[in-house]
Write a structure and sequence with these properties.
Length: 170
């Protein structure tokens, strides 16, 4: 039987506890899970693609998940998935708003390649509010992000904010 390969795409800027939950659970569904680290042109990343790939690789290794590979990509998701030999796209859902967007994307992706299925995993209830965008915003205003990311990621985000400067003083 052929190896079942899944792709979990995202910007992971930064990788959160929610992402790690989806990676841990998604890795159980496939023989190999490729985490595709990409750049979204509509987002202003805090970290470079190489920095994000290094963060994801380190965090996955620390979780002890061994059937994961981290790959950077800057292409149409379905072309990337096909090039990786994937039969599954793994996506995490936090709320109804995520579902509406992801449902539309899954439909478009199916039109591009109906051999690759999209699988949705609901975020753990305790992790549902976590979003990288909000983590960065909290950090930029000097808030505590330790409940949303690992301590190593917290330190890297705080260091980057200190480089760039916080936004608020009160």
């Amino acid at each position: 039987m052929a190896e079942r390969i899944g792709v979990y795409p995202g910007t992971f800027d930064p990788i959160t506890l929610g992402h790690l939950d989806i990676i841990r659970r998604g890795a159980k569904l496939v023989d190999k899970l490729i985490i595709g680290v990409t750049t979204n042109p509509s987002k202003d990343p805090m970290f470079t693609t190489d920095e994000r790939m290094a963060m994801v690789s380190r965090e996955v290794a620390e979780q002890g998940i061994d059937n994961v590979e981290v790959v950077g990509f800057n292409a149409l998701l379905m072309k990337f998935a096909r090039a990786q030999g994937a039969s599954v796209i793994v996506r995490g859902l936090r709320a109804v708003a995520d579902f509406e967007y992801e449902y539309q994307m899954a439909g478009m992706n199916q039109q591009l390649d109906d051999e690759i299925e999209t699988v949705f995993l609901m975020a753990d209830v305790s992790l549902q509010p976590i979003a990288s965008k909000l983590v960065k915003e909290i950090a930029l205003f000097g808030g505590d992000i330790s409940g949303f990311v690992t301590s190593a990621i917290r330190d890297e985000v705080v260091a980057r904010v200190e480089e760039k400067g916080r936004l608020g003083d009160y």
